[in-house]
Amino acid sequence: MDFTTLLIYVDDILLAGNSLNKIEENKRRLDKEFSIKDLGNARYFLGMEIGRSSKGIQLYQRKYTIYLLKEWDLVDTGFCFYIGSSLISWRRRKQATMTKSSSGSEYRALSQAVIEAQWILYIL
């Protein structure tokens, strides 16, 4: 059974489906009515990166995640856990006091990361 979906956000339109013929037919209809511009295969939609492989299509929010981490100053401290390329958990701790050596705080952060990793492995 052929399936085609039309995703619309303001002036962005994304056509997706399992039949290229049906997608092309819908593009012709839309172009006849609204004079649309075909930008080819989608790479981004609503801030999501669209990746293609022989296994299918994946949606990523890597750029947005990095933007948020930078915006909230979370890039240089703490730890992040990914499943594939999806961020599933992160921690950040600000040091209450400054020390000459960061090895103690790095050890505590590593200890917390190991605990988090064990928990994630347990639930998987």
UniProtKB/TrEMBL annotation:
InterPro entries: DNA/RNA_pol_sf, RVT_2
Boundaries of every Reverse transcriptase Ty1/copia-type domain copy: 8-77
Name of this protein: Reverse transcriptase Ty1/copia-type domain-containing protein
Organism: Cajanus cajan
Top-level taxon of the source organism: Eukaryota
